[in-house]
Amino acid sequence: MREAEQHPWLSRRNFLIESHLGLGALALFDLLAADSLASAPGSESLPLAPRPQQLQAKAKRCIFLFMEGGVSQMDTFEYRPALQRYAGQQMPAFSGTAGPVATLGAARNRVIPSPFRFARHGQSGRWLSELFPHLATTVDDLAFLHGIMVDSSNHAPAVYHTLTGHMIPGSASIGSWITYGLGTENQNLPGFVVLGQGVPAVGGTGIWSNGFLPAAHQGTLFRSGSAPIVDLNQRPGMSLKDQRTELDLLQWLNERHATKRMNASELEARMASYEVAFRMQTEAPELISFAKETDATRKLYGLDDPATEVFGRQCLLARRMVERGVRFVKVLHGAVKPWDQHGDLAGRLPVLCKEVDRPVTGLLKDLKSRGLLDETLVVWASEMGRTPFDSNVVSDKPGRDHNQYGLVMWMAGGEIRPGSTFGQTDDFSLRSAETPIPIRDVHATLLRLMGLDQNQLTFLHAGRYKKLTDTGGRVISEILT
Prior knowledge:
This protein has helices spanning 3-6, 12-18, 22-39, 82-85, 99-106, 155-164, 174-182, 240-258, 265-288, 295-300, 306-323, 345-369, 439-449, and strands at 61-67, 110-111, 118-121, 126-129, 143-149, 192-195, 220-222, 328-333, 376-382, 385-386, 389-390, 402-403, 407-412, 421-422, 437-438, 459-461, 464-466. With 481 residues, it is an alpha/beta fold.
């Protein structure tokens, strides 16, 4: 039998390293390791240990509310009376777009005015649709961004672009970058948690993937409902002491296995996840139980209404997580009924808005009343906006098409300037009337609000220093205090 077959770890590369080229290889590895550590705050032996911010910032945790499907901006956050003047007519000629938006805009279509009333709210005089009566009561705490542009009008690439900075799967998600840069404050819970709705999200697990970052930074999915963590309870007849002994044996075997491999990132992450899972058995039951929450708090989040209960539970759990030091919580809505109204806009959009309006408002007010909003950045996002026209000119229940140029987002908490606005779309809410806001600018701003510098937060992968903003983004200082 050949030596390599007796020792499968002895590859050609290992042979060269351990022979006369070993010193050169070690020197090279030392240089690469030094470079990597200089730009890789998450590469210590404890990848999720808390680390200081690179820049001074108030926000220490983030709750990212993501509405899957493309929220219609001219029916929610942008009042556009011009749509009424052109109701039922062909969309006037326009420029500044490409791809499906330009094609559909030039083809036969009809302008669809919003079927919902708008009114001004708060001291900021912010226009909001009647679909958000609860959010209207806290609108002065929000900062809006209008005319955000992503690079695709197809759902999956747009979702990836919004949540990872790249349209192609395989890149690290925002939450992974945040925990890579800052670690987490509670070692008994995951640093990056995803609160889903029980069905696969658009893009699947890739939207909370660690990508090329160490595997310890991937998101941990919690299910919807009253039992979000699978197999949380101890096995029958198994004590915590027995589990500890079993886990210690498994740890020893894994460490022995890892010493024979050059890159054991995924194995090390698996080992760390076992430890977190073990510790969660003591802390997580209290986390996911709402028994100590008052009736007033339950009502605030809409747990008393079947229409809002599911998302209300997600938002209340998100507050309980950041309260306990979880660094990044991604809250997903729309997997069951997506925000993708190609038809029956007037019938479907109110249902979705009702499901989230009260829970989101409850989250903002609850964080503020507990003194947590200053230290918690709350972000509302979708993957794209919608068109002011419908390419289906015969349906009696019109909808809207995809629009990569019209995304609206808002933020609250941290150093966000309450009641501020940046960006402006045209009279049809089709695209930016000024310079478009590329999504990388939003990412750069989000990192800055969390105390991270986009140019320092890098990771060496495949010979290139990767970062969330790729070619670089502009921090939108206009919405910061």
